[in-house]
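As the work plan foresaw, our protein records have gained a structure token line. A representative record is set out beneath this paragraph:
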Amino acid sequence: MATSSDIRKGLCIRYNNDIYKIIEFLHVKPGKGPAFVRTKLKSVTTGKIVDNTFSAGHKIDDVRVETHKFQYLYNEGDMYHFMNTEDYSQIQLMKDILDTPELMKEGEVVTVLINTEDGAPLSVEMPAHVILEVTSTEPGVKGNTATNATKPAVVETGAEINVPLFINEGDKIRIDTDKGQYQERIKE
């Protein structure tokens, strides 16, 4: 058993007869009244996101998990196939438990959280950033750079990202997987 002070991003807990992963949290200590922790929880079974507030010292039932490195192979509709990089066993996961499946390209190595009690995969954690090639975007309009102007661009995985005007087709860009935003252009 853990308490609300142990809450951190990525922690898996039992809540309302389901297993949830904490995707955001904020410790709040108001001037009046007791402290509390405001959280955003994502169900690992349904993918549903709920907001919850835990009072200070509240007991939470954390789930013991192991992390394993898996390589993304391919997807068939909503089923995504991964291979363990140590023993080459393969697993299939539903699209719902993936955080940003649109940013995964084949061969990407991700971290899979596995429940130690029953061996069931709970969640997939992407690397902090991925490098993808821009496959299509409109050319930038010269002189339209007074503000932080952006334009939509489609990357090789099919995801659409807003990028600065100087990005062209064929450029490789670094994308923050947490927010799904452009970070920088990669020089080759």
